[in-house]
Amino acid sequence: MSILTLENLTKTFGGLMAVDHVSFSVKEGEIFGLIGPNGSGKTTIFNLINHYYTVTEGKIFFQGIDITHKHTHEIAQLGIGRTFQKVKPLKRLTVEDNVMAGAFARETTFAGARAVAQDVLKFCHLDDVKNMKAGSLPIGGRKRLEIAKALATRPKLILLDETAAGLNPGELDEAIDIIKKIRDELGITVLIVEHIMKVIMTLSDRIHAIAHGATIAEGTPAEVAKNPLVIESYLGSDYNVENYLNA
Ligand code: ADP
Ligand code: MG
Question: According to CATH, where is 3.40.50.300 located in the chain?
């Protein structure tokens, strides 16, 4: 069953067509990758799903409900959580308080929010730094905090925007493990934007590729990595599919 469906989703900024009639469906329980060169419209698609931006044309359905014109907070309430490419923690608050701020999206009591925060902090390996100021976390921790804040809203679908960017190899494996567990243990569907091929190719069940705002391919990682349009506009000709798939 499809949890999220985009139908001819389109966004223009003045004369620029940032998203050009994109359609795809994410199935419940899937890890679904969205790839494309810088500036191809990936973050804009996330901003349309959450209604940070108003849709120019097309429709968005979540669990069969038309959410195209719903407010950002209603969309969060329905069960879509997201991370931001530019991480923006409340720097002077502790890591724990940042996660609690996310938990209050759904929890109405302090005790309830605290309990959710404890679970999420453990899940994201942030338990031992929970009393640190968020602003003093190194990049790996900040990226995991971004995931933790989104998980604290207890989503059914999570949108991850380049949560592995800037991580060292050890942190990268940790992030891959956490994302896998989000789907396998928490049962949350994952829509992921990521440039790091190791992450996108090993995690995704299916991948949708865009360039200049428009769809160029969709399929399994193996199919998409071999697609001539994807090679031409994104992967480059010196790539080796096997390296990506086995990395
Ligand atoms: P990606 O995430 O794939 O790198 P973006 O979705 O951030 O790409 O951007 C797609 C295009 O839309 C880019 O040309 C970008 O400059 C433009 N864009 C994104 N947000 C805005 C905005 N708020 N105002 C004007 N142009 C924007
Ligand atoms: Mg982006």
Answer: 1-79+155-166+183-247
